Amino acid sequence: MLNKKPPLDVIRTWSDIHYASPEAGRIVEDWLYILNEGSEMDIFYSVPSSSSLLLTITREDEYPTWFYHFDHQPHLHIIHGNGVIHQKILQSGRYRIGVINFDSRVEVQLNITARALIYNTSEARDMCMVAQGQCSLPVLFGAENYAVLTTHLKQGISDGESYVNLSYQPRLSAYFGGIVLVIIIMYAAICLFNTSIRIICGLVDRWRLRFICHLIVFMISVLFAPICMGPYRVGAGSSSLIQVAIPYFVESIDAFKFPDKKVEPILYMLNKKPPLDVIRTWSDIHYASPEAGRIVEDWLYILNEGSEMDIFYSVPSSSSLLLTITREDEYPTWFYRFDHQPHLHIIHGNGVIHQKILQSGRYRIGVINFDSRVEVQLNITARALIYNTSEARDMCMVAQGQCSLPVLFGAENYAVLTTHLKQGISDGESYVNLSYQPRLSAYFGGIVLVIIIMYAAICLFNTSIRIICGLVDRWRFVFKRSLLP
Question: Which keywords does this Swiss-Prot/TrEMBL entry list (predicted)?
């Protein structure tokens, strides 16, 4: 226990040796290091020269954002042969080091040397050994108090991880003083409440009519404003389903395409949910030459569940790249899903990767390079499932400008926004702004109903206030006696 914040200037050094033999498509059990800002690590690795592995260094709370941080702090490393990786810790936290294998079983040896900065406790006023069981340290009243929890054993999950339960013991004198203060505040609040009720009793009748007038103006202003659904992002070849919510108050759906060149969306309206059973196939060829430590500009594919992709790649046989297939909203969780849906692939030479889409969404395909500049060619063939619009009752070409489709009153209404061009970011991405136009008759009927309900509620509120005004004086002394001993 210290009276001031201790400096982070003590260096502690230790080493760990780990042996691992991860199976193909699996991440080996990773190793934990709890390090402060300014610490450093040297990771010496030994892998058979004919194989390549992926070594990861990640902070536990960093999964949503680390994917594009190659410029500032390299987290992924393709390792083969013998070598060393130097890692500087830029932010305090819990760091995990793991090894991922995408080929046949490979053995790897890691010799990890950590130079950790720890807090200087030379000026501590008290200390206790938690290892001996329960211990307690006093906290000074009204002063700064800092506690440092440290261990003198070498770090790493290879030596186990433990938990220490910390709890505060209350200062009884402060608690009793707080109870007295709360009683005084509650007494003052009851007196203030009594005065406020009397003032409200005089104002209710005066403001009732004004409140109803403001309510009518507000409802009319809402009535004549279209309900905006926001912009929808569409790629060439995409097919999105939109269910019309509350058709009683919606007259039509308006679609307006933002200025763009290559994507031409079409809006369909159906009476029932269309099946997802139409297959559309197209191919894209991409050439990339990513610099070392960079992810090449990735390519977008908007695909529905059940679609498939074949990615044919060609890389010089002496180099290795990392190919990623990720859904845009999946970054926080995709890292450990190698059993169900492989997202990372080490590619070299010529080959093909087959990817089945298990969940509809926006998928990005990218190539990451950790070595010198390498050229790669990708030939991507997509077999996409799109919604069947053969039974559509209406359609309009959004590419021609603004268009509108009517919504049936009280029935199910489904809209499908689709395009007929080949997909991929190479052919562009566009935005379509969708909005609901209100059904005026339903809105006017709703306004009348709301006014009637609000008038009845105000009359009930007025009556309740008058009853409360009569009871406050009678029960005021009862409230006082219930609070005071």
Answer: Membrane, Metal-binding, Transmembrane, Transmembrane helix, Zinc, Zinc-finger
Residue carrying the six token digits 């039509």: 252
Q: Are residues 217 and 235 in the same domain?
A: no
> Does one domain contain both 218 and 270?
no
Instruction: Report the candidate in 57, 69, 59, 14 with the shortest Cα–Cα distance to residue 36.
Output: 59
Task: Give the β-pairing of 308-315 and 349-356.
Answer: antiparallel
How far is 443 from 250, CA to CA, in rounded Å? 9
State the sign of the Cα–Cα–Cα–Cα dihedral 156, 82, 295, 41: positive
CA distance 57 to 437: 52
Instruction: Give helix then strand counts, H and E, for the chain.
Output: 2, 26
**185 and 221 in a common domain:** yes
Say what angle helices 172-223 and 440-483 make with each other, to 10 degrees.
160
Do 300 and 272 have their domain in common? yes
The pTM score is 0.59
The span from the CA of 426 to the CA of 24, in Å, is 33
Residue 5 lies in a domain: no
Which of 481, 476, 483, 479 has its CA nearest to residue 179?
A: 483
Q: Are residues 249 and 322 in the same domain?
A: yes
Residues 139, 171: Cα–Cα separation, whole Å: 10
Three-class SS of residue 266?
Answer: strand
Cα separations in angstroms, 266 against 277, 343, 399, 415: 18, 32, 7, 10
- Asked, for residue 358, whether it belongs to a domain, the answer is yes
What is d(CA 113, CA 115) in angstroms, rounded to the nearest whole number? Answer: 7
Range of the domain at 469: 170-225+442-485
Per-position pLDDT tens, the chain of length 485? 778 888 888 888 888 888 877 766 565 667 888 888 889 889 998 887 677 788 888 887 654 444 444 333 447 787 878 888 888 888 888 888 888 776 667 777 788 778 788 888 888 888 888 877 788 888 888 888 888 888 765 544 444 567 788 888 888 888 888 888 988 888 788 778 767 766 766 665 555 556 666 666 566 555 555 555 556 677 767 888 888 777 777 888 888 776 665 677 888 888 888 999 888 888 888 888 877 656 666 788 888 899 999 999 998 767 778 888 888 765 444 444 433 344 778 888 888 999 888 888 888 888 877 666 778 888 888 888 889 999 999 988 887 778 888 988 878 899 998 887 554 444 556 778 888 887 878 777 877 787 788 778 777 877 777 777 667 666 665 555 555 55
Separation between Cα atoms, residue 271 and residue 392, nearest integer Å: 8
Both structure tokens of 212: 């109803």
Same domain, 402 and 299: yes
